[in-house]
């Protein structure tokens, strides 16, 4: 077997696709433009660099669709999950990682693999032959993006995504803040104290909202329009939707007790999560923002405990692009117009590190099995990956297609179970039990790994 699988993009999706295909015995070339061609968001030339957050979200594989996706990727020998587990940080019930060692480890594993070659070069044209996966993510280069748009016959859809600020821990006033995960969730003391909490009373909250609404914001360029992805809204956009929105979102005060004032229930709480293994950096959870830097620092220092905060990185906003996948891709993630090309990752219209890596895992396996002459079926719809790929390649309404996180709303109902909140625990467990069985059956059908 001499056919090569070419992968454009070395992010989460491209890295996972390369790993899966290489382990099946296929020769893989990763084409990554960094560090020769930089982006405004990336800092290094490492593969699988995490830009927006260091969290893979919930790791609960029985009651959460994201946790179920973690389970499926681990069962498939996924590189991203293996490496995330290796560099895990305390985060309550979530899976957060030390982002720089994580990316370095992924890069080392891929560059050391005998079936993988990494080429540091930008590709700006649609490949005419061969086997290809385009996994260029939300920051697809202008040249390649224009080539894809020209071939699709319509402009790619777009939305704006925002980055949360990161703060030096030693600049946080711990006489006002405290460490606690909501409802003390976690099996170890580190997990139960994984989040740093900054409380607000009602007057402080109201003043914060006023300042947030009045702050200078980043303006879009002339002619540049797009919607926001609801799962990653800037805090000021949430505030514009109502003064109580943040207090019922990322600033909700439930499940927490302030040890400095145990008898006083906070009106709102800002949470920070450890961003590196040393515990020297913390990111503000859910605080993606488009405020300009000067205003941003001023407003965030209104948060009790952050009055003297020093920022390792301020928040920002960038434009993400993605395909109208229901009209362009088949259920094997192939471009209908050019079936020698598959797409994977956020460019397909999934949202989040986990979902992007999962689509890379599928694209890598599907492409490799085709190259090996043993084509396999798409994953079953009852699995988490199957539900997600079904949504983006046909289950979603093309006219209103928007980026989607994995969630149980994408799953087919289980007969005989109650709907509504009261039946949710049993329903979610039934979804995950059914998904695990379906996923294991699909894995057995994958051509043997080398």
CATH fold group of the largest domain: FAD/NAD(P)-binding domain
CA-atom Rg in angstroms: 22 Å
What is the CATH superfamily of the largest domain? FAD/NAD(P)-binding domain
What is the number of independent domains?
2
General shape = globular
Level-1 CATH class name of the largest domain: Alpha Beta
Instruction: Let me know the largest β-sheet.
Output: 6 strands, antiparallel
Task: Classify the helix fraction into a percent range.
Answer: 25-40%
Mean pLDDT: 90
Gross CATH architecture of the largest domain: 3-Layer(bba) Sandwich
Distance between the termini: 13 Å
Spell out the helices and strands N to C: EHEEHHEEHEEHEEEHEHEHEEHEEHEHHH
Number of helices in the DSSP assignment: 13
Subcellular location: Cytoplasm
Domain MnmG N-terminal: 6-374
EC number: 2.1.1.74
Function: Catalyzes the folate-dependent formation of 5-methyl-uridine at position 54 (M-5-U54) in all tRNAs.
Verbal overview:
The chain is an alpha/beta fold. It has two domains: 4-154 and 323-444, FAD/NAD(P)-binding domain; 162-319, Elongation Factor Tu (Ef-tu), domain 3. It is built from 13 helices and 17 strands. It has helices spanning 12-23, 65-75, 79-86, 99-112, 142-152, 189-192, 202-214, 235-240, 293-300, 325-328, 353-371, 384-395, 424-444, and strands at residues 4-8, 27-31, 55-58, 88-89, 94-97, 116-119, 131-134, 157-163, 166-168, 178-179, 195-200, 227-228, 268-274, 281-284, 311-313, 316-322, 341-343. The strands form four sheets. A six-stranded antiparallel β-sheet has the order 10-11-13-14-9-15. The longest helix is centred in the C-terminal third of the chain and has 21 residues, at 424-444. The chain is globular.
């Amino acid at each position: 077997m001499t056919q090569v699988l070419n992968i454009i993009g070395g992010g989460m999706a491209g890295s996972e696709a390369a790993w899966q295909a290489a382990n099946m015995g296929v020769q893989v070339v990763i084409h990554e433009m960094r560090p020769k061609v930089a982006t405004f968001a990336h800092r290094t030339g490492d593969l699988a660099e995490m830009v927006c957050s260091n969290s893979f979200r919930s790791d609960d594989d029985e009651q959460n669709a994201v946790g179920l996706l973690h389970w499926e990727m681990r069962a498939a020998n996924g590189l991203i999950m293996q490496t995330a587990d290796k560099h895990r940080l305390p985060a309550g019930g979530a899976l957060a990682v030390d982002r720089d060692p994580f990316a370095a480890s992924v890069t080392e594993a891929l560059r050391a693999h005998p079936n993988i070659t990494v080429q540091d070069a930008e590709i700006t044209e649609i490949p005419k032959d061969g086997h290809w996966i385009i996994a260029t993510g939300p920051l697809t280069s202008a040249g390649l993006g224009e080539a894809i748009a020209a071939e699709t016959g319509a402009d790619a859809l777009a939305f704006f995504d925002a980055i949360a600020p990161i703060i030096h821990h030693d600049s946080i006033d711990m006489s006002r803040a405290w460490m606690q995960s909501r409802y003390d969730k976690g099996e170890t003391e580190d997990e139960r104290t994984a989040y740093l909490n900054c409380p607000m009373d009602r007057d402080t909250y109201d003043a914060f909202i006023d300042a947030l609404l009045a702050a200078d914001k980043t303006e879009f360029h002339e002619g540049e329009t797009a919607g926001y992805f609801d799962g990653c809204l800037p805090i000021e956009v949430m505030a514009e939707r109502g003064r109580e929105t943040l207090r019922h979102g990322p600033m909700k005060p439930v499940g927490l007790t302030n040890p400095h004032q145990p008898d006083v229930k906070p009106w709102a709480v800002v949470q920070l999560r450890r961003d590196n293994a040393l515990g020297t950096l913390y990111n503000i959870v859910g605080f993606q923002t488009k405020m300009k830097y000067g205003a941003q620092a001023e407003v965030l220092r209104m948060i009790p405990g952050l009055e003297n905060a020093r920022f390792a990185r301020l928040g920002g906003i960038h434009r993400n692009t993605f395909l109208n996948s229901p009209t362009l891709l088949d259920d094997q993630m192939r471009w209908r117009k050019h079936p020698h090309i598959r797409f994977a990752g956020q460019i397909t219209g999934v949202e989040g590190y986990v979902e992007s890596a999962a689509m890379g895992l599928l694209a890598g396996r599907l492409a490799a099995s085709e190259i090996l002459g043993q084509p396999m079926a798409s994953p079953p719809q009852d699995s988490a990956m199957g539900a997600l790929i079904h949504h983006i390649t046909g289950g979603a309404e093309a006219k209103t297609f928007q980026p989607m996180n994995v969630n149980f709303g994408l799953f087919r109902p289980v007969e005989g179970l109650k709907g509504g909140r009261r039946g949710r625990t049993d329903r979610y467990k039934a979804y995950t039990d059914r998904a695990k069985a379906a996923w294991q059956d699909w894995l057995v059908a994958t051509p043997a790994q080398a």
